[in-house]
Amino acid sequence: MNQGTEESLMMMRERCGLFFGRLPLLAGVMAMLLIVGCARQAGSPESVSKLTETAWRAVEVDGQRVEFLPGQKLDVSLVMHRTGRIRGATGCNNLSGSFSQESDGLIFSSLATTRMACAKKLMVRERLFLQALRRTARWSVSSRTLTLYDAMGSRVARFMAVDGR
């Protein structure tokens, strides 16, 4: 082998040695980035719904499962806007009103509905839903579930975030 070839081989070994010598460090950095990325994703806005600007569909009111009933045209739902206004539906009528929120405190006020008559079961559930909203004092959001509580800490309603409004 000539001297130029030997020098080239030595330079390649040095370069490769530098690269492969750093592999454990590089692997460690990549692992840390992966862990941090996954931790951020679990709590990111995409996976954890926010109280406002999220469409919430009721799944439970006063311990009773909310099911779609015969004659029902609207989901029992709620959207709270950053402006402090709410829009939603009782399953029978459209709902509007206001809310105020501080930390985990939540109060609904000025609740109003359209006045369409529906089947008796729908009207009974509408009344229960409105009463639950009026009794609300606290809230919590966990992943895609909103839970409302009264002043004594009892659950009054539970909602699931709905994709697309």
Indicate the topology.
Layout: H1 3-21, H2 23-42, E1 55-61, E2 64-65, E3 76-80, E4 85-90, E5 94-102, E6 105-113, H3 120-135, E7 138-142, E8 145-149, E9 155-162
Antiparallel strand pairs: 1-2, 1-3, 1-9, 3-4, 4-5, 5-6, 7-8, 8-9
Could you walk me through the main structural features you see in this protein, from its secondary elements to its overall organization?
With 165 residues, this protein is of the alpha+beta class. It has two domains: 40 residues; 108 residues, Lipocalin. It is built from three helices and nine strands; from the N terminus they run H-H-E-E-E-E-E-E-H-E-E-E. Strands 1, 2, 3, 4, 5, 6, 7, 8 and 9 form a nine-stranded antiparallel beta sheet that branches. A hairpin with a 2-residue loop joins strand 5 and strand 6. The chain starts with a helix and ends with a strand. About 12% of the residues have low confidence.
List keywords for this structure.
165 residues, alpha+beta, nine-stranded antiparallel beta sheet, 34% strand, elongated
- With helices defined by DSSP (H or I, 4 residues minimum), what is the helix count? 3
CATH topology of the largest domain: Lipocalin
- CATH 2nd-level architecture of the largest domain: Beta Barrel
Mean pLDDT: 82
CATH class category name of the largest domain = Mainly Beta
Strand content: 25-35%
Structural class: alpha+beta
Rg computed from alpha carbons, rounded to a whole number of angstroms: 28 Å
Helix-strand pattern, N to C? HHEEEEEEHEEE
Measured between the Cα atoms of the first and last residue, the distance is 74 Å
- List how many beta strands DSSP finds: 9
Q: Estimate the helix proportion, in percent.
A: 25-40%
Q: How does the overall form come out from the CA principal axes?
A: elongated
Strand count, sense and closure of the main sheet?
9 strands, antiparallel
Number of domains: 2
Q: Low-confidence parts lasting 5 or more residues at pLDDT below 50?
A: 28-47
